[in-house]
Design goal:
Elements lengths: L5 H27 L5 H21 L3 H5 L3 H14 L10 H10 L1 H10 L5 H38 L1
Helix pairs in contact: 1-2, 1-7, 2-5, 2-7, 4-7, 6-7
Protein name: DUF697 domain-containing protein
Organism: Chromobacterium alticapitis
């Protein structure tokens, strides 16, 4: 269900940001491991759980959208299209997340090179992993928030 008020929407955003910070810490831990490829696999696995959880909290998960009336669905899809997020209101698949990870290929390549430098490289990888996961998660939260806020504004105008 979509948030019913701006205060509820703000609370959901803060809860989701806390969730992102926790998952970013997991990503940092995986990034600090010296085994090549573990960090990428961990990031995809984390995102496979994180993005649907955020969608669910904001009321824009595919199953939730299917339950809305036709007019609400149409407006919601228009707003999501304008937001331009490939993750908003969609079924999240490994291939979709792999494409997201692929776009960040420079980050991954840099992280793999840093693994060759013991200790300092691992710490730098952890910091990069944390920051990148936090960026992806918070960007998705911002997209969800913007769409839900526009829905609230439209509901008030009607």
């Amino acid at each position: 269900m979509l948030p019913a008020s701006l205060s509820e929407l703000d609370a959901i955003r803060e809860q989701c940001r806390a969730m992102v910070n926790g998952r970013a810490a997991l990503s940092a831990g995986a990034s600090a491991l010296p085994a090549p490829g573990v960090d990428v696999a961990a990031d995809v696995a984390i995102l496979m759980q994180l993005i649907p959880a955020i969608n669910q909290r904001f009321g824009v998960a595919p199953a939730q959208i299917a339950g809305y009336d036709a007019a609400r669905k149409q407006l919601l899809y228009q707003l999501m299209r304008r937001a331009g997020s490939a993750l908003l209101g969609m079924e999240v698949t490994r291939s979709l997340l792999a494409a997201l990870v692929k776009r960040a290929a420079g980050r991954w390549a840099g992280k793999q090179a840093l693994k060759l430098v013991p200790v300092l490289g691992w710490a730098a990888n952890a910091a990069i992993g944390f920051a990148a996961m936090r960026y992806v998660g918070n960007s998705h939260i911002d997209d969800c928030y913007a769409v839900c806020r526009r829905m609230l504004e439209r509901d008030r105008a009607d």
